[in-house]
Amino acid sequence: MVLLAIGTVAVILVALVNLTRAATTYEAGLDGHYQRTDDPKQIIVTATVGHDDEIVDYAVREDAASVRLTVRARNPHTSGWNDLVGYSRIVMVTLHDPLGDRTVFDGRTGYRMQDLAVSTARREVGVIDASSYRVASDGQIELRWDSKGAHAISDLRGAGVVFVTRGPSFEQQSISKMNMLAFESYLAAATDSIRNTTFVFVINFERANAVAPDDAPFRALFVDPAAVPTDAPEILKRDTPAVVWVIAPDGHPVVRFSGPGPLTRGQVVQALTEFR
What we know:
This protein is an alpha/beta fold. It is 22% helix and 36% strand.
């Protein structure tokens, strides 16, 4: 009888909490991208809400360098209950001033949002020419790849370049993922000057499974293991533990890290600030 009473109270409390939640608006999640339109003062974003939830409004805070956007929604049902599936809703946002080159932030999370067109282009996987790897007499490193045109480390002089390998095994991918998260975490909060002068390339060894974080400093590269010479460096070999190389803006390596565990955020900060 006591158990029943406790259970009944619990059910009533849960119901009241749900009813309270349903009676209020909430900040909807955004999918992390925005899309430009023909109108420089309008952008399109995608909000995630419950099945029958309604977009109520949006709020925009603008300054000369940034746009911070929050979308609000509400559950119209008095019961408060809904399925746990998220549904996408398109929201057209009108800005006070043209977007220009300002950075867009999700006002709910504080995270940067990505320009959809740029993000889509960034997903093009570059193919490494394994035979192009060279170390000059002064220690400068060179490596070339093709991604809608020829590219090379030497094209990025003046910027820090990071290579993170992502091998095929579960252990390699797990450590690689933690390495990527460490760089992603640091760069998400870094200044624009650091983000704009840092490139992080994720070297994959399976073309169909080649990925990199969907964020501006990251790019996915692929190297064919069959085309890698025996004397190639560890960043081009699929069987080595998860590898990280950090190359300074002058082309000289400053960090060579190889498993068996992942990099810490402190090591990432040290690696990316050592040459600045």
